[in-house]
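Hi all, posting the design record for the shared folder.

TITLE: backbone redesign
STEP: 1 of 1
STRUCTURE INPUT:
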């Protein structure tokens, strides 16, 4: 009996390690429905705890007057970026249900925030949508492995970070900074998805509610455009997204993804439509293209992505944003005509060379990461903000005592143009992923 129990635990561990994305080969939306054999109910969770010491000023004016804040003291912070519960159920006859409930930054409640991209204004507000989020809630009908229809609240898998955002899918303590700056993360919206697997291919096509141009910004491009300040999500306009992954080469996953949608006039109240109104003809069309890959073989894990996006009528969108009432929930900073993020990381498992530790399935990845990103590529008529163009380097280790737990340590440095101060930091974290049923 004891021997059988040990064998069962080993099988379950293998299922979890493969499905949860330790090798970043399984998309997050698929991992919700990871079942142990014979179980209709799936229950899982993931989360992360981090501590960072920033060796640079945290003053909101450090970019407008860098010399004044060059010698400011360091500052530290604890955070629990994400704590997630998965629930899934197989009803039978091809009908399944999946949900993902996420608690961000320890929960919800009233908080004071400093709006750093709007002059440092203090805002006291009840956190809605950013602290407790329903990231997935869908019903799916599977007709065949190559044909699945999913309806409800779904992950929009554009870019590496959105398709593979569980905390064992990246080496850094926090989610990769470039994509996390310019794109919604995790990008989730309500709509319809058709997806499937055929041979070495996985593909997905989605129709969802569109982004809201009034929530775009200089510092985060379209990142906040998927959020709603209301109890409902305005859906006057819609977005189309698509993703294709290929697994032909053993240990290698290659993917391309894209998004297109109109972002102006997708808010509440919908006052900008109508003949003779100033911004009636402004479309604010958003296009995003992304390539990403993961290689996991020969004791190496290498991941990378390249994203580029454009926004039509950026100057007119910026003008419309600047005219919003001061107490509106919209951002008033200008938004650029484009944004980009490029990143690559590589880690080698040094425990693979130590027989005892390798046999015990322990891993220690020594890794490095490089990123370049710019959240504000402007039109000629728009003002310049050179600090939005950044490079970031990081080095560190990830220790896996078990396939479902990672202890992370990372040194990073954010590098700007010469007139700005660089921003080094040291971060420590622990992350977990597991399925309990």
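Okay, here is what came back for every position:
SEQUENCE:
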């Amino acid at each position: 009996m004891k021997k059988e129990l040990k064998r069962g635990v080993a099988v379950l561990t293998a299922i979890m390690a493969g499905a949860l994305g330790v090798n970043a080969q399984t998309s997050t939306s698929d991992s919700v429905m990871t079942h142990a054999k014979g179980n209709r109910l799936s229950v899982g969770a993931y989360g992360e705890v981090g501590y960072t010491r920033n060796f640079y000023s945290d003053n909101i004016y450090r970019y407008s007057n860098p010399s004044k804040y060059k010698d400011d003291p360091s500052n530290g912070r604890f955070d629990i970026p994400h704590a997630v519960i998965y629930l899934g159920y197989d009803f039978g006859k091809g009908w399944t249900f999946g949900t993902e409930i996420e608690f961000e930054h320890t929960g919800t409640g009233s908080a004071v925030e400093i709006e750093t991209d709007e002059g440092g204004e203090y805002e006291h507000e009840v956190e809605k949508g950013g602290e407790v989020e329903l990231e997935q809630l869908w019903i799916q009908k599977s007709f065949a492995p190559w044909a699945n229809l999913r309806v409800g609240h779904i992950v929009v898998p554009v870019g590496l970070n959105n398709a593979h955002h569980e905390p064992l899918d990246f080496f850094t303590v926090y989610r990769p900074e470039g994509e996390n700056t310019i794109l919604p993360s995790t990008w989730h919206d309500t709509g319809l998805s058709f997806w499937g697997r055929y041979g070495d291919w996985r593909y997905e096509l989605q129709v969802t509610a569109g982004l809201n141009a009034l929530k775009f910004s200089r510092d985060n491009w379209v990142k906040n455009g998927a959020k709603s300040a209301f109890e409902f999500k305005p859906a006057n306009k819609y977005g189309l997204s698509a993703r294709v992954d290929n697994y032909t080469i053993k240990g290698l996953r290659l993917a391309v993804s894209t998004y297109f949608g109109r972002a102006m006039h997708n808010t509440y109240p919908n006052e900008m439509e109508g003949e003779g109104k100033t911004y009636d003809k402004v479309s604010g069309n958003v296009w995003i293209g992304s390539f990403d890959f993961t290689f996991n073989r020969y004791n190496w894990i290498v991941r990378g992505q390249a994203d580029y996006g454009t926004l039509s009528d950026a100057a007119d969108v910026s003008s419309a944003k600047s005219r919003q009432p001061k107490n509106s929930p919209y951002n008033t900073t200008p938004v650029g005509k484009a944004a980009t993020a490029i990143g690559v990381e590589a880690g080698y498992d040094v425990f693979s060379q130590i027989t005892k530790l390798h046999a015990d399935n322990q891993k220690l990845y020594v890794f490095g990461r490089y990123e370049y990103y710019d959240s504000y590529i402007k039109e000629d008529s728009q003002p310049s903000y050179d600090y939005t163009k950044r490079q970031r380097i990081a080095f560190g280790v990830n220790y896996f005592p078990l396939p479902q737990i990672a202890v992370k340590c990372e040194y990073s440095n954010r590098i700007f143009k010469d007139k700005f101060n660089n921003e080094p930091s040291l971060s420590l974290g622990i992350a977990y992923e597991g399925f309990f049923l």
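COMMENT: The CA atoms of residues 182 and 240 lie 18 Å apart.
Let me know if anyone wants the other runs.
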